[in-house]
Amino acid sequence: MLTIGELASYAGVTVRAVRHYHAKGLLPEPERDHSGYRRYDATAMVELIRIRTLAEAGVPLARVRELLQADEKEFAEAVADIDKRLRAEIRQRHRQRERIARLTSGDSLVLPPVVIEHLDRLRALGVDERIVQVERDGWIPLAARSPERVPEWMARKREQLADPQLIGFYLTLGNALDRTDDPQLVELADELAAYITRMADERGDNYIDDTAIAPPLVTLMDALAFDTVPPARRLIELLKERGWTGWTELKRVDPPA
User: How far apart, in whole angstroms, are the C-alpha atoms of residue 175 and residue 171?
Assistant: First the structure.
C-alpha cells in the first residue's frame, strides 16, 4: 500500500494533483489506515497514470471520466473528436501568433499591404509625416468598411501619384503645415481647384471621389484631418470658394457669387 506522496511520485504527478483529481471525482478516495492516512493500491496507481496521460494529451478533465469509462469504439471516437478540437485550437493559436507578429510592424496591423506601400511611397516622395498620418488614419476605416474596394482605390492613387503636379500639392501643403493663413495656401487652393476641375471634366466627378462613405464617418474623418493638419481646414474653405468642398469626400459645389 502506498501513501499519497509515494503514489504521486510513482505516477509522475504532484500530491496537489492527486488531491485535485479526488476533488473532481476522477480518482476514487481510498480507504484510510488506522491513523487516518490515505493508502493506495496498484489499481489506484494505474488509474492515476491513465488520468495523467489523458490530461497531458490535452484532454479536458471534464471528459477524462468519460474516456476512462468508454469502450474501445467510444474511446476512439472521443479521441478523434478531441484531436479535431485541438487542431482547431492550434490553427487559432497560429492566427493569433501572426497577429502578434504584425503588432511589431505598426500600420500593417490594421491596413493591407497595398496601403502600406502607398504610405511608404508618400514618405519616399518627401511628404510631411503629419500628412502621411492623416492618409493612414483615413484608410483605416475605409479598408475596414470596404476591403474589396481597396485595390481599386489604390490603383487610382498610384495613377495620381505618377503626376508630379499632385506630388507638388502634397509638398506645398507640408510647407504650410504650421501656418493657417499662408499665401501658399491660397496659391495651393487655386492650383488644386484647377487640377480637380480638369480631372473631373476629363474623367467625371466619380473619378474625384466615389467612396460613398456614411456622412457621420465623413465628419469624423474630416475632424481628424483638421486636428492633425490645421491648415487643411483653411484649405477646404478656400477650395469651397473655388467650386469644391470636402476633405474626405470631395464634391463639386457652386462657388459663391
Answer: 6
CA distance 216 to 214: 6
Per the structure block, which three cell numbers stand in for 112? 493591407
pLDDT in tens, 148-180: 888 988 888 888 888 888 888 888 888 877 766
pTM for the whole structure: 0.53
Beta bridge pairs of residue 251: 245
Alpha-carbon gap, residue 207 to 97, rounded angstroms: 40
Q: Name the β-bridge partners of 38.
A: 32
CB 56 within 8 A of CB 83: no
Three-state DSSP string of 113-159: HHHHHHHHHHHHCCCCHHHHHHHHHHHHHHHHHCHHHHHHHHHHHHH
Domains and CATH numbers, the chain: 4-103 (1.10.1660.10), 106-252 (no CATH)
